[in-house]
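quick q for whoever's on today - can somebody do inverse folding on this one?? i tried earlier but teh output was garbage lol. tokens:
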């Protein structure tokens, strides 16, 4: 998609993000490579793999992981903070820094065991235009607990 606008006698062209990356404008496709949820009587784990793709290194990569409100954070990587309340519930924010093209970073957050909702979700972004924002979100639901053997 390309539009031309006349502005005080000059031609100014506005390019879409896809065309921008073809024109040499920095762009980084950060994506949720995979997301996995696992739950047992001891806790709930959400593991997210983030990948940087495209032509340029992703800058200031940020990951937000959402988990059930009923659980409390037990552990998370040092580059992450949980919130919004104490004890931390609801989500965690992680700063993944700069990611080289092709690089994958894994974040695992452990919470107390949920009684109902066993789903986590994640959203990733960076400071450069993202030519494919459709792959920035993912979610996973833990398999139901196996029935007790009698």
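ok took a stab at it. sequence:
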């Amino acid at each position: 998609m390309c539009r031309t606008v006349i502005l005080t006698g000059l031609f100014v062209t506005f390019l879409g993000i896809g065309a921008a990356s073809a024109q040499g404008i920095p762009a980084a496709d950060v994506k949720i490579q995979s997301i996995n949820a696992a739950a047992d009587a001891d806790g709930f784990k959400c593991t997210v793999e983030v990948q940087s793709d495209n032509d340029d290194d992703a800058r200031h990569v940020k990951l937000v992981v959402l988990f059930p409100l009923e659980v409390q954070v037990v552990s998370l990587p040092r580059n992450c903070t949980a919130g919004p309340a104490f004890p931390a519930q609801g989500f965690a924010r992680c700063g993944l820094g700069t990611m080289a093209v092709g690089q994958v970073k894994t974040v695992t957050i452990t919470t107390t065991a949920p009684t109902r909702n066993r789903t986590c979700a994640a959203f990733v972004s960076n400071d450069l235009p993202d030519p494919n924002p459709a792959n920035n979100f993912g979610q996973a639901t833990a398999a139901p607990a196996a029935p007790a053997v009698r």
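fwiw The chain has one domain: 27-141. also The longest strand covers residues 29-40. so keep that in mind when u check it
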